[in-house]
Amino acid sequence: MSEKQELIISKREEAKPVPATVVRPPVDVVEDESGLTLSADLPGLAKDRLQVRVDSGTLMVEGEASLDIPTGTEPVYAEVPPLFVYRRSFTLSRELDGTKVDASLKDGVLTLRIPKTEAAKPRRIDVKVG
Amino acid sequence: MYESLLRFPGDILGEFERLQREMEQVFGGVGRPVSIRALGRGAFPAITIGNRPDAIEVWALAPGIDPSKLEVSIDRGLLTIAGERSADVPAETDKVNVYAKERFAGVFKRVISLPEDADPARVAAQYRDGVLRITANRREEAKPRRIEVQ
Fold first, then answer.
1. Choosing a second label site near A78 at 20 to 30 A (CA), which of A16, A72, A119, B147?
2. DSSP B102-119
3. Domain contains A74
4. Do B17 and A108 touch (CB under 8 A)?
5. pLDDT tens track for A27-44
6. Is A42 part of any domain?
7. Which residues of A fall within a CB distance of 8 Å from B117?
8. Domain carrying residue A103
9. Architecture per CATH, B36-88+104-140
10. Residue A76 and residue B95: Cβ atoms within 8 Å?
């Protein structure tokens, strides 16, 4: 093994992985009578990499996105890194049913439907005149 | 010169990360000049460009768009990505409340200047997971070749 090869090998071992950039995805949140709808932009995130968790009143959306850049590509311009992590969490209020969250991911857009608990749905309260 | 000796294919991700950090600084007001057509941070769709010996590739992060409504065109070396993303957010009524409206909605257009050797006849575009990937192959005659020494 030549000296140069040795140098390259030791250099490679030293190279530490760059910590992934964390991106806070933009969202739309809309409430209607029966629940909340949350939409989030998550381009580059494959379905099997997406994690949606509800834990003690906190909704967490997380996943690692990749642009699938082939090896041998030289960077020219980068508004987004080739690998990054989406992460954003929300606290759910008591009237929302975290156990019945429905999630779908299509073309890089996540749609979550969080229903309200039965008791929390709006009721009309009659005002008695007396 | 020595730096290029020590660069390995495995470090490409790091190189893109470094470039992205540099661009954050550039758009923050300092640093080297950028393309006259660059729009800065927060533009829709966000793009990343990479060079390969046989092609130049562009990744555009354009989630939630019907691929048939994406317009990709090349004219005199300028690659244009255009389209429209409709707003899904309903109007507020007494029964509907909108708490956040951060996602981009409306008409968008981004223009990228391709290198001279990009072949407009051999450009491919693919849309997956909300990412539009455009591959512009280089002209055959422009590819690096080995010249035999007689």
1. A16
2. -S--EEEEEEEEPPTTEE
3. yes
4. no
5. 999 999 999 999 999 999
6. yes
7. none
8. 18-118
9. Sandwich (2.60)
10. no
